[in-house]
Structure formats: C-alpha cells, structure tokens
Amino acid sequence: MSTEPELETILLGPVLADRECGGCVACCTVLTVDTPEFKKPAGTPCAHLVPGGCGIHETRPPICRTWFCAWRRIASLPDEARPDRSGLLVSLNFVREPRNCFEGVSINVRKLAGSDAIESGMARIVLDSLCDRLVPVWFSDGSEKMLMHPDGDVARLVISGDPAPAHLRDEVAAWREHYGVFSTEG
Fold it and tell me: What is the pTM of this model?
C-alpha cells in the first residue's frame, strides 16, 4: 500500500522546483498535525511559528519537512493561488474512516478565515483547475464541507450503484472503475 507522501505525488504530482512557500505559513495554523514527533490541533498556530516563519526551520519535524500544499505541486494552479495570496489552502486529505468513497482520499480546498476567495472569484479559478481528474474535490468555507467533484448526480449514482442514464454512463463507470469497490453496470 502507498504511503501518504507517495499518494500525494501520484495524485498531485511532484513538488514544483519553481514554487516556494515564501512568506506563506497558512499550513502552520490551519492544519491538524498528529504524528509521534509533533501534535497540533487545526486552527491553532504552531507553537514554533514566529514573525517571518518557522522558529525551528532547521530542526523542524519530519511532517513539516515533507508536507507541501497542492499549490506547490499542481502547475495548473496560478501563482495567485498560493494560500497567503488566495485565501485558500488546497491539500490532499486522508480520512481514516470515510463515510463514502469520496472522503477516503480527496483534494480539500479550505477557505481561510477572513478570505474573500469566493467573492473575488479565486475559489472558482482554483476549483476549475482541480476538477478535471478522477480525484474527489471538497470545498470547505469554514462552516460547511461540500463535495464539488464529481457533481451530485454522478456522486449519488456511484455510491448507490444504480444504473446511470446514458448521458452520465461513461463518467459514472470511470469513477466506479477508478475506485474499484463498485460493480460496473451491465
């Protein structure tokens, strides 16, 4: 079975050499970290975060050395999509006990507190660049988490196993085949 860092590379691509975090430290506050070496709840600034970045950058834990947001990996995301510029943090999400096939491994777009990413159109730009592959995409605005890709009709058919109408048959079959846990239509 692939490890989480390997899955990130398979699904999102390798870290792009021409993209740097710069002054962005969104992940240092937004994300939950729960590893043997380091723990931090979501929405809480890291204890090592200081003005200008990480206070222990040279000796930071392995999770901080190996984790990269999707902006660092997906070339189709514009430069303006860097989390501190866009107000959106895009990452691969791993849910240990998913409620359905779209939650286990998915792309999660999180709107950062105080962000105008929806009003400015940046959320649409980012979502449009992510919803072109067989990877579920979720959007969270801080109060609600919504499945953005595949669309609702396709998702319902994939989960239910019901036969798809002709206009959705190929898309539903592709999702079912990709996830391998759903029988294909006969």
Answer: 0.88
